[in-house]
Task: structure prediction
Amino acid sequence: MSKIFDIITHPNPKLRKKSLPIEENEIKDKKTQEFCEDMIQTMIKKDGVGLAAPQVGINLRFVIVTTNGEPICMINPQITKRSWARAWDEEGCLSVPGIRGQVQRNKKINCIYIDTEGKRKKIIAQNLDARIIQHEIDHLDGVLFIDKTKKT
Ligand SMILES: [Zn+2]
Result:
Protein backbone atom coordinates (compact mmCIF):
# COMPACT_ATOMS: atom_id res chain seq x y z
CA MET A 1 0.00 0.00 0.00
CA SER A 2 1.24 3.41 -0.91
CA LYS A 3 1.39 6.19 1.58
CA ILE A 4 -0.32 9.47 0.79
CA PHE A 5 1.72 12.37 2.16
CA ASP A 6 0.36 15.59 3.60
CA ILE A 7 1.41 18.55 1.51
CA ILE A 8 2.92 21.49 3.34
CA THR A 9 1.87 24.94 2.28
CA HIS A 10 3.32 28.43 1.99
CA PRO A 11 4.68 30.04 4.24
CA ASN A 12 6.17 26.84 5.75
CA PRO A 13 9.97 27.50 5.94
CA LYS A 14 10.74 24.01 4.55
CA LEU A 15 9.48 25.26 1.18
CA ARG A 16 12.19 27.93 1.25
CA LYS A 17 15.16 25.68 2.02
CA LYS A 18 17.64 24.61 -0.63
CA SER A 19 17.35 20.83 -0.96
CA LEU A 20 20.34 18.49 -0.85
CA PRO A 21 21.27 15.95 -3.53
CA ILE A 22 20.47 12.29 -2.87
CA GLU A 23 23.66 10.27 -2.38
CA GLU A 24 24.45 7.89 -5.21
CA ASN A 25 24.46 4.82 -2.90
CA GLU A 26 21.00 5.67 -1.52
CA ILE A 27 19.36 5.79 -4.94
CA LYS A 28 19.05 2.03 -5.43
CA ASP A 29 17.82 1.60 -1.86
CA LYS A 30 14.34 0.11 -1.58
CA LYS A 31 13.33 3.18 0.45
CA THR A 32 13.93 5.40 -2.56
CA GLN A 33 11.72 3.17 -4.75
CA GLU A 34 8.98 3.28 -2.13
CA PHE A 35 9.30 7.03 -1.75
CA CYS A 36 8.94 7.40 -5.52
CA GLU A 37 5.78 5.29 -5.55
CA ASP A 38 4.30 7.18 -2.57
CA MET A 39 5.09 10.53 -4.20
CA ILE A 40 3.39 9.46 -7.45
CA GLN A 41 0.29 8.27 -5.58
CA THR A 42 0.22 11.51 -3.56
CA MET A 43 0.46 13.60 -6.72
CA ILE A 44 -2.35 11.66 -8.41
CA LYS A 45 -4.55 11.79 -5.31
CA LYS A 46 -4.10 15.57 -5.02
CA ASP A 47 -4.69 16.14 -8.75
CA GLY A 48 -1.25 17.58 -9.35
CA VAL A 49 0.92 17.34 -12.48
CA GLY A 50 4.14 17.53 -10.49
CA LEU A 51 5.39 17.19 -6.93
CA ALA A 52 8.73 18.00 -5.33
CA ALA A 53 10.05 16.34 -2.15
CA PRO A 54 10.16 19.63 -0.17
CA GLN A 55 6.37 19.85 -0.62
CA VAL A 56 6.03 16.81 1.61
CA GLY A 57 8.59 18.25 4.05
CA ILE A 58 11.63 16.37 2.74
CA ASN A 59 14.47 18.63 1.58
CA LEU A 60 16.04 16.29 -0.97
CA ARG A 61 16.51 16.83 -4.72
CA PHE A 62 13.72 14.56 -5.84
CA VAL A 63 10.73 15.45 -8.04
CA ILE A 64 7.86 13.75 -9.79
CA VAL A 65 6.84 15.31 -13.09
CA THR A 66 4.21 14.38 -15.62
CA THR A 67 5.70 14.24 -19.11
CA ASN A 68 3.74 12.96 -22.09
CA GLY A 69 0.97 12.19 -19.59
CA GLU A 70 3.13 9.79 -17.56
CA PRO A 71 4.59 10.43 -14.09
CA ILE A 72 8.36 10.02 -13.84
CA CYS A 73 10.70 10.26 -10.85
CA MET A 74 13.71 12.49 -11.29
CA ILE A 75 16.53 12.29 -8.78
CA ASN A 76 19.06 15.14 -8.63
CA PRO A 77 17.60 16.79 -11.77
CA GLN A 78 19.56 19.53 -13.46
CA ILE A 79 18.60 21.73 -16.37
CA THR A 80 21.55 21.78 -18.76
CA LYS A 81 20.12 23.88 -21.58
CA ARG A 82 17.31 26.41 -21.89
CA SER A 83 15.77 27.73 -25.07
CA TRP A 84 16.06 31.42 -25.79
CA ALA A 85 12.31 31.43 -26.45
CA ARG A 86 10.15 31.89 -23.40
CA ALA A 87 6.39 31.87 -22.85
CA TRP A 88 3.90 33.09 -20.26
CA ASP A 89 1.21 30.75 -18.95
CA GLU A 90 -0.89 30.24 -15.87
CA GLU A 91 0.48 28.14 -13.01
CA GLY A 92 -0.74 26.94 -9.66
CA CYS A 93 0.85 24.86 -6.92
CA LEU A 94 -0.41 22.34 -4.37
CA SER A 95 1.65 24.22 -1.76
CA VAL A 96 0.03 27.57 -2.60
CA PRO A 97 -3.66 26.64 -2.61
CA GLY A 98 -6.21 28.96 -4.15
CA ILE A 99 -3.74 31.08 -6.09
CA ARG A 100 -2.92 31.01 -9.79
CA GLY A 101 -0.71 33.34 -11.73
CA GLN A 102 1.10 34.00 -15.00
CA VAL A 103 4.71 32.83 -15.02
CA GLN A 104 7.28 33.13 -17.79
CA ARG A 105 9.29 29.96 -18.50
CA ASN A 106 11.72 28.72 -21.12
CA LYS A 107 9.78 26.92 -23.86
CA LYS A 108 12.29 24.11 -24.29
CA ILE A 109 14.83 22.64 -21.89
CA ASN A 110 17.30 19.80 -21.68
CA CYS A 111 17.39 18.12 -18.30
CA ILE A 112 19.60 15.39 -16.86
CA TYR A 113 18.61 13.29 -13.86
CA ILE A 114 19.02 9.86 -12.28
CA ASP A 115 16.13 7.41 -12.32
CA THR A 116 15.16 5.13 -9.42
CA GLU A 117 17.33 2.35 -10.87
CA GLY A 118 20.35 4.61 -10.66
CA LYS A 119 20.58 5.17 -14.41
CA ARG A 120 21.60 8.54 -15.82
CA LYS A 121 18.90 9.93 -18.07
CA LYS A 122 18.48 12.94 -20.29
CA ILE A 123 15.19 14.43 -21.37
CA ILE A 124 14.38 17.16 -23.86
CA ALA A 125 11.06 18.73 -22.87
CA GLN A 126 8.96 21.46 -24.39
CA ASN A 127 5.91 23.56 -23.62
CA LEU A 128 3.83 22.18 -20.70
CA ASP A 129 6.33 19.40 -19.89
CA ALA A 130 9.18 21.94 -19.80
CA ARG A 131 7.07 24.24 -17.61
CA ILE A 132 6.31 21.49 -15.09
CA ILE A 133 9.98 20.48 -14.83
CA GLN A 134 11.09 24.10 -14.30
CA HIS A 135 8.38 24.64 -11.66
CA GLU A 136 9.36 21.48 -9.75
CA ILE A 137 13.12 22.11 -9.90
CA ASP A 138 12.47 25.63 -8.55
CA HIS A 139 11.00 23.94 -5.44
CA LEU A 140 14.39 22.28 -4.84
CA ASP A 141 15.97 25.72 -4.66
CA GLY A 142 13.30 27.14 -2.35
CA VAL A 143 11.60 29.09 -5.14
CA LEU A 144 7.79 29.23 -5.50
CA PHE A 145 5.90 30.31 -8.61
CA ILE A 146 4.44 33.27 -6.70
CA ASP A 147 7.98 34.72 -6.64
CA LYS A 148 7.83 34.92 -10.43
CA THR A 149 4.26 35.91 -11.24
CA LYS A 150 3.60 38.97 -13.32
CA LYS A 151 2.98 41.90 -11.00
CA THR A 152 0.19 44.08 -12.29
ZN1 LIG B 1 4.63 23.73 -6.91
